[in-house]
């Protein structure tokens, strides 16, 4: 049984993966045994004994899980989210009658060109282009950076994992700034890395001084920053970002929601900063969450290795066709984005009037609310679900008694407000 001395417990926290912040409420949890000794936090890796099954005749036999990598045996079992159809049966409502404000999806869906292009798909039986050339050329036009700097993935999720696979040795450290998107901590666990948490300040801004200290003391390999941040919707200002970019660490800037912020993407910055990667996605901006297309801008000195390590056919023919078709209708994308931003402002004003909610201003397509006045956030989420409105509930170390509401169409806001009034 190995014991890894992770860090000084006075200022840092060990990882505690709750679930990914955007949509899945029940991904695997890592449960390393951690304890304190003096002022140091120690983590026990309990994986050196191979699981053995005793068979009837007294012989001992290795069990299948003995072949699994030790650190993965520490992950709790995967609990998949309910497919939409199953959810609809469980709630006794037709899928179209469920108001889904729990996963920051784009309720307008993609431009009509996407379904037309999918219907006209000619070669679904041929493997896709491993270099996604058509899409990368279209993204170069869309983003203003040459396609050599761009790599496409099966969602931004795949790129987060791919970056970690290329960068982290088992035992390496990453910096995570919770509350934030929990896939960074989850993927780090799968890749055998340790997570140093530097919690955000009360207003959800980054604690840059603490980040700098941790980088100096712990020498982590990379830091994941999210702007706008999921789940609170705050953005990172350029001054803070530049300070962190000056430190000896690879900065992965996740811009999954950048379109709703009114800010320019930092994709072109990767030409000036050898330690910056910028990630984006079609899931939110183009309503293509189900088709799984994400992309990133990388320094040329890094992208070369991602090309070597990625699965050759990571972006399906359908995904590439859809993303290209979506980019052909920028007017639609802009219109939908404007509608969501406008609705966000209306939703914020309405939530402010609810006596037991304290909503936070957001630059994204969701609004985080503290549930106040002694009301139970989990009960609120459950009761709304029975009324056909899904929202996200938080009950972890950084966010206890909070809910997050995705911005929907105006009629979704109206239905939510009606249910909140009925609940009071
Ligand atoms: C901050 C953040 N990054 C990345 C993703 C994943 O994006 P994709 O759907 O492209 O995998 C999400 C999903 O909600 C997210 O909230």
TrEMBL record:
Protein name (record): histidinol-phosphate transaminase
Keywords: Amino-acid biosynthesis, Aminotransferase, Histidine biosynthesis, Pyridoxal phosphate, Transferase
GO MF annotations, alphabetized: histidinol-phosphate transaminase activity; pyridoxal phosphate binding
Organism: Aquilegia coerulea
HAMAP family registered for this protein in UniProt: HisC_aminotrans_2
EC numbers: 2.6.1.9
Domain Aminotransferase class I/classII large: 97-417
Reaction(s) this enzyme catalyzes, per UniProt: L-histidinol phosphate + 2-oxoglutarate = 3-(imidazol-4-yl)-2-oxopropyl phosphate + L-glutamate
UniProt-listed InterPro entries: Aminotransferase_I/II_large, HisP_aminotrans, PyrdxlP-dep_Trfase, PyrdxlP-dep_Trfase_major, PyrdxlP-dep_Trfase_small
Gene Ontology annotations of biological process type: L-histidine biosynthetic process
Cofactor(s) named in the record: pyridoxal 5'-phosphate
Metabolic or biological pathway: Amino-acid biosynthesis; L-histidine biosynthesis; L-histidine from 5-phospho-alpha-D-ribose 1-diphosphate: step 7/9
